[in-house]
Design brief:
44 strands; mainly beta; Immunoglobulin-like; rod-shaped; 6-stranded mixed beta sheet
């Protein structure tokens, strides 16, 4: 009798389901191992074509990296406000890690191939609008979604471009009806049960962009917050591929609203996408004619830069001008730069980023070389005014017009005494033939008061007769007879000497009293003179 009773009891449990079978499930409480977000509702087909019948289904996704047993899990449906709730408690079922699981209302023996588990008639017909679906383990909600409407014959899908997530699927903007082009699952019914969902077509809203699947306001740059810092208008190579513009942003912005163009009425959006394109504060962005324009190109440059004539580059947002640079002409292969001091200059020769192309796209620009104004020179790198001698402060005191130890081209020289601390910059030595020597240098060529400075045809002491005190080279050639040497600056004569003859190998000297005589002391290779030193008195 005992065996017959046990068999009968088992049959009664299997038949009733609502009695001893459910108590057994409650005792095991397997679904207590689930946590919120482990299962994600990803698709709902609540409104099949024609009579809904047994073609409704709900798709869930196992968002964990582990196999999940669904026994004991509760699926509930209701109105969006929770009223009229119906539920079903899973009697079995399991889903692999990161896999889809489809739950349908078709009878167990007649389920479509894409349905993994049947809840039968426990939920009745799913609501076509104003509805809520909940996955629950006891009192703990694993996931829930609400939907306002459905479309006849088309499933409601969570956006296939997004990873299934129990928080992202709370946003109705991340759901859409199965789009055109998807194969039917049955006559007049479309969806992707058990497979990756269709990507939703996002309706772009002016002033909004998508970040992690959610829409937010575009952060537009403000006046003063963006600066055009460098541009390559005339690259070595094809302009249509290698032109670029660099802009620096002082605050966090989105490039979605940023515009560049050659004029205020010709601004073009630099990107055209629905996803947010964030830029951090302090970032330099490179806009290139092609990805090959620079070592790093962040966005497309959608207009051509001009190589010649007056040109402009304008930055803007929403039609508002934010910054502008103007330039006139280019040098092939060399970018224009704006340095940290807001000075404009061409890129330096040491900043070669591609062969024969110079600039610093994406990097901080170096300071521009200082441009010396008229009457300026560099004193240890700092510009200052040139200190020029006045009349009486510079005197021609000695000259060698006819060297003997070496040839004229190597051995001629002129000596000038300075009676004040001055600069040699700009001094001019000339002769009767209008030949001139102009002392030119960006650096300040200082001389102390009392210095005897030698201007020589050759600065090499091994070739010029043994003079090792040459300060600057002499380009003019001295006549041996009937010559005048003039020292001047800015067309103002400082001193002049004339002579009718010169003896071979003998310099002509002017002593402290202004007397002129032949030199008597030998220097270097044997010629007579005192180049670079005070002259003896004439007798």
């Amino acid at each position: 009798m005992t065996g017959v009773w046990n068999w009968a009891r088992g049959c009664v449990c299997a038949w009733l389901l609502m009695g001893c079978g459910r108590e057994a499930i409650a005792e095991t409480n397997v679904c207590g191992e689930l946590s919120p977000g482990d299962l994600v509702i990803t698709e709902v087909h609540a409104n099949p074509d024609g009579s809904d019948g047994d073609r409704e289904y709900i798709e869930v996704f196992n968002a964990t990296g582990a196999f999940l047993d669904l026994e004991g899990l509760t699926l509930a449906t209701s109105r969006a406000d929770g009223a009229s709730s119906k539920s079903h408690r899973f009697l079995g079922g399991s889903v692999d890690a990161e896999a889809y699981f489809v739950i349908g209302n078709a009878p167990t023996g007649a389920m479509p191939s894409y349905v993994d588990y049947s809840y039968g008639g426990a939920l009745g017909s799913l609501r076509n609008s104003d509805a809520a679906l909940v996955l629950r383990c006891g009192d703990m909600i694993i996931d829930e979604v609400r939907y306002e409407r459905t479309a006849d014959g088309r499933a409601l899908e969570f956006d296939g471009r997004l990873a299934p997530d129990h928080q992202l699927n709370d946003d109705a903007n991340h759901w859409c009806m199965t789009p055109e082009g998807v194969d039917p699952i049955s006559d007049g019914n479309f969806g992707t049960p058990g497979a990756m969902n269709s990507p939703c077509e996002v309706v772009r809203v002016e002033g909004l962009c998508l970040e992690d699947g959610s829409a937010r306001a575009i952060r537009a740059p403000l006046p003063g917050g963006v600066r055009i810092t460098e541009w390559m208008a005339n690259p070595e190579g094809p302009d249509t591929e290698l032109e670029w513009v660099e802009a620096s942003f002082d605050a966090e912005i989105d490039l979605n609203s940023f515009q560049l163009g050659p004029a205020p009425d010709a601004l073009k959006a630099v990107i055209d996408q629905e996803e947010c394109f964030p830029v951090d504060a302090g970032t330099r962005v490179v806009f290139g004619a092609s990805p090959a324009a620079a070592p790093r190109v962040d966005a497309e440059l959608k207009f051509s830069l001009g190589n010649s004539g007056p040109r402009a580059i304008v930055a803007g947002a929403g039609g508002v001008d934010l910054d502008r640079v103007d330039y006139d002409g280019t040098v092939e292969g060399v970018a224009w730069q704006i340095d940290p001091n807001q000075d404009v200059c061409l890129a330096l020769p040491e900043d070669e980023y591609f062969e024969e192309n110079f600039g610093t796209p994406g990097d901080t620009n170096p300071e521009c070389p200082v441009v010396l104004g008229p009457g300026m020179c560099f004193d240890e790198g700092a510009p200052r005014g040139i200190v020029s001698p006045t009349a009486g402060e510079a005197t021609i005191t000695e000259w060698m017009a006819n060297p003997l130890a070496v040839g004229n081209r190597e051995g001629e020289w002129v000596e000038v005494r300075f009676d004040a601390a001055v600069d040699l910059n700009g001094l001019v030595l000339s002769d009767l033939t209008a030949s001139t020597t102009i002392v030119e240098s960006d650096d300040c060529l200082e001389v102390r008061a009392g210095a005897h400075v030698v201007f020589a045809r050759n600065a090499d002491p091994t070739q010029n007769g043994g003079i090792d005190a040459v300060r600057t080279e002499l380009s003019l050639s001295l006549n041996n007879t009937n010559e005048t040497i003039t020292l001047s600056i800015d067309s103002r004569a400082l001193d002049a000497v004339s002579y009718a003859r010169s003896n071979p190998g003998v310099a002509t000297q002017v002593d402290g009293a202004g007397n002129v005589c032949d030199a008597v002391h030998a220097y270097g290779d044997g010629d007579l003179g005192t180049p670079g030193s005070a002259n003896p008195w004439c007798f």
